[in-house]
Structure to design on (501 residues):
């Protein structure tokens, strides 16, 4: 697993029309030619039929579709995770904490499925700052764990995997004094660490201590081992001295015995906001990050919440988060290129904001090519032309009217058949929606007149009562048939002025 590299998306508004898609593609191409790296066009939603036709005719692949750009956990976590097996001693855990400068250590099984978590602060308080003598002496361990922790040779092993609550003693006193100590202690709960003190060794084995640790690789007699076997005493030989062995023995507890099993976790694909909420409502210094198969792939801490994410945005053909790809307000916004009214939210730092009162965003992008002294390629020019034509078609002969009750506008185009209109209908309707909103119209219409058949179709957008007011046969969604109507000025406009009064 590796962090995603920085990616800049040039993206239009939701429910994209040709101007939104084509301007994104053309502007991304311009910024690449200007040296901006890792920039690509994108879209939010499915292409309409007109845009599909344009891209198909130009033999251009549609831009990538973004469902959202919410920052994900995978965007901010580190590439590698340090883990420890459940049977490893605490000494190994402390070594890993120090070597990798970490505070959270997942305890996992052989498949890297989490079993619990070790927190450096909690372990330090528990093992380095005990408040009572019995806490200093108490060790929960097994012979196997001591072998690993002390790098010992097992001279005699009894119930090697059995984890027990034991008490740690050092056989440094006179053998007679030690004998008295043994008489007042349950030997089966004792770990005795000693050097080549033969009498102390013999008395401990004869009394049946649970574990005898002989330090410094010092010799152990065969007779002693024979007694140890008879009395079921584990005997270990370690190369460490007595002081070191005693210290390490306290850290021989298998990590599974002290791991916190109340584990907070998130998935790689979870939103960063989900991680933030878990960190806010937990005292734990870290949260485990799991892959889809449940294995540990990272540990997320509060510092990850401050890490920059790889996704950045350039918005075209809109400047409001309400129209933008979901999650746009959670990532860095670099630029805006638009031709609509201002409605943007404040940004955290200054950005390039280009907004011009032109007919389409493709027109704006075309002016930016000229300003940069760059000639668009045939593909880039075709994209910009395709993006601006439907709107220009609508506005090339567009008239506005008003009554006491409403304000409306109607464009008109003459054709020899309706085939081109049927192909462009979705795109023209999208442009009409924008014009209606921009100009504050109660109704926007586009009259397409077949001069051969001497009939017209009216594409009209307005209130729910519009179909009843128009009183024309409805032949499709927002589409009406006007048989015998050829003139907007003499036939359609007077009718609309009358019904809207």
């Amino acid at each position: 697993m590796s962090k995603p590299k920085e990616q800049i998306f040039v993206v239009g508004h939701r429910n994209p029309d040709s101007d939104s898609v084509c301007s994104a593609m053309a502007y991304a191409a311009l910024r690449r030619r200007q040296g901006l790296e890792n920039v690509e066009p994108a879209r939010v939603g499915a292409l309409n039929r007109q845009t599909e036709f344009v891209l198909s005719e130009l033999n251009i692949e549609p831009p990538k579709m973004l469902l959202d750009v919410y920052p994900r956990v995978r965007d901010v976590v580190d590439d590698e995770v340090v883990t420890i097996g459940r049977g490893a001693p605490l000494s190994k855990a402390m070594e890993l904490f120090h070597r990798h400068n970490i505070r959270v250590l997942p305890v996992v099984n052989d498949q890297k499925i989490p079993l619990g978590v070790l927190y450096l602060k909690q372990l330090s308080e528990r093992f380095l700052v005990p408040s009572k003598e019995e806490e200093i002496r108490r060790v929960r361990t097994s012979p196997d764990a001591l072998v690993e922790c002390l790098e010992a040779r097992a001279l005699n092993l009894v119930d090697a995997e059995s984890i027990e609550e034991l008490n740690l003693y050092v056989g440094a006193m006179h053998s007679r004094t030690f004998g008295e100590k043994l008489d007042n202690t349950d030997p089966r709960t004792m770990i005795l660490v000693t050097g080549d003190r033969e009498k102390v060794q013999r008395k401990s084995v004869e009394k049946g201590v649970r574990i005898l640790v002989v330090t410094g690789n010092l010799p152990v007699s065969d007779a002693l081992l024979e007694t140890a076997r008879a009395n079921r005493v584990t005997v270990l030989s370690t190369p460490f001295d007595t002081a070191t062995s005693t210290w390490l023995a306290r850290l021989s507890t298998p990590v599974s015995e002290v791991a916190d099993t109340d584990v907070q976790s998130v998935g790689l694909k979870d939103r960063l906001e989900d991680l933030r909420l878990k960190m806010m409502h937990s005292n734990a210094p870290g949260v485990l990050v799991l892959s889809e198969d449940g294995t540990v792939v990272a540990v997320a801490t509060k510092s990850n919440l401050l890490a920059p994410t790889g996704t950045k945005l350039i918005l075209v053909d809109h400047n409001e988060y309400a129209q933008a790809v979901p999650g746009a307000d959670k990532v860095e916004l670099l630029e805006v290129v638009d031709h609509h009214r201002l409605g943007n939210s404040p940004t955290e730092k200054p950005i390039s904001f280009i907004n011009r009162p032109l007919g389409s965003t493709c027109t704006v992008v075309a002016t930016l090519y000229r300003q940069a002294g760059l000639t668009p390629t045939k593909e880039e020019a075709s994209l910009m032309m395709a993006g601006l034509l439907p709107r220009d078609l609508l506005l090339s002969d567009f008239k506005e009217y008003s009554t006491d009750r409403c304000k409306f506008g109607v464009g008109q185009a003459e054709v020899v058949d309706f085939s081109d209109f049927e192909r462009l209908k979705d795109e023209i309707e999208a442009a009409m929606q924008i014009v209606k909103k921009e100009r504050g119209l109660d109704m926007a219409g586009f009259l397409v007149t077949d001069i051969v058949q001497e009939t017209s179709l009216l594409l009209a957008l307005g209130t729910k009562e519009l179909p009843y007011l128009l009183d024309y046969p409805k032949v499709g969604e927002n589409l009406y048939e006007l048989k015998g109507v050829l003139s907007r000025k003499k036939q359609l406009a007077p009718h609309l002025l009358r019904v809207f009064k």
Notes: The first helix runs from residue 18 to 33. The chain has three domains: 7-71+309-384, 84-257, 396-499. The longest strand covers residues 407-415. The chain has a mean pLDDT of 89.
